[in-house]
Design brief:
Elements: H1 3-13, H2 20-31, H3 43-59
Helix pairs in contact: 1-2, 1-3
Length: 66
């Protein structure tokens, strides 16, 4: 699994795979703004993020096994 793939899975599921900084960078990229760590603990933020990254998460199923 690549660093980006781990960040996508982490952002979608809420379970950290890989390093936090990769996930944080990915989330900021997807949202197009700085994201503060205290925001990530919010249930509303998690639901909104899950919807925003869903297409990237689903696209992972099309990745060819290495």
């Amino acid at each position: 699994m690549t660093r980006r793939e781990a960040a996508i899975v982490s952002a979608y599921t809420g379970f950290l795979l890989g390093d936090f900084s990769a996930m944080h960078e990915y989330i900021e990229e997807v949202l197009g703004r700085p994201v503060f760590t205290h925001e990530m603990g919010s249930h509303d933020f998690a639901e909104m993020l899950r919807e925003r990254v869903k297409s990237d998460f689903v696209a992972l199923s099309n990745v060819v096994e290495r």
